[in-house]
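**User:**
My hope is that you can spare some time for a protein that puzzles me. This is the protein in question:
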Amino acid sequence: MDRRQFLAAVAAGSAAAASPLAMAQEWPANPVRWVVPYPPGGGTDVLARTVAEAMRKTLNQTIVVDNRPGASTNIGGQIVASAKPDGYTIMSADNAILAYNEHLFSKLPFSPEKDFSYVGGISRFPMALVVHPSFEAKDFAQFLAYVKAHPGQVNYASPGNGSPHHLAMELFKNRTGTSLTHIPYKGAAPALADVMGGQVPCMFLDLASGLPVIQSGKVRALAIGTAKRVANLPNVPTLAEQGLKDSEVYAFQGILGPKGMPPAVVQRINGDLQKALKDPDVVKRMADFGMEALPGTPEQFQQLARAESKRWGQVIKAAGVKLD
């Protein structure tokens, strides 16, 4: 190899080594597509748009929210899993795509573990066990005693089979050895409406949609499913405080991209996400919804998702829940 060839080889190697950094510095040169696997107007959609607007300030680039609902978030997941891994397609991902669906469906068009780049967590939605105000159980201990004394006779509502609300009650049943009858609805709104109306006595309710009705007294919260009490409902004890250990129930979400995204781009998006989670508008919106921020690294987000998948896989198998 002569001197000219040697210098050319060194230059090529340096360019290759610098290319991830160069890509991160150049990214985003175009608008970023943010897939939301739910219809417009729901908690996930509103939060995605709020965070996207905050990230736009630091990215100096447009983020276009693209709602792709259907198939328990699998439609949106397939779109993103098959997208070009250049950082221009990301998505909101929650319990369904990260922890439930691989156990609820016999076959998925993607692997949650193998077909995505994990970018970072956004939030956690605490869940509460609620009853209609007329229900005779006034606290958690009385509720547990009542359902034990009336096996299979107490109905509970949920937004549908395989929803976090449904599986939260399956976990409760598993941990307490109780039997309640599931009444699935097509969405959280009609399920909550019937609990508020007294047609169904109870449900697990996420605070993102249920905090106002709890605070107004339209339903009574008996327990919170997170490890610590929530600031919005300081007088409502946790399940753990009432003796139900290893029974945390919450919905969580974060950002995924296609597998193979350049690490430097993943880190850039994560960095802007961390800044967005401290943005006053985002902080206020989360507080209004009763959400908790879920900051951290891509690795921490993936570890959480995998741990939750293992935990809920056991619950789903024990309950025999399937969506196909």
Summary: The CA atoms of residues 168 and 249 lie 6 Å apart. The longest helix spans residues 3-26. The chain has two domains: 21-124+251-319, 126-242. The first strand starts at residue 32 and ends at 36.
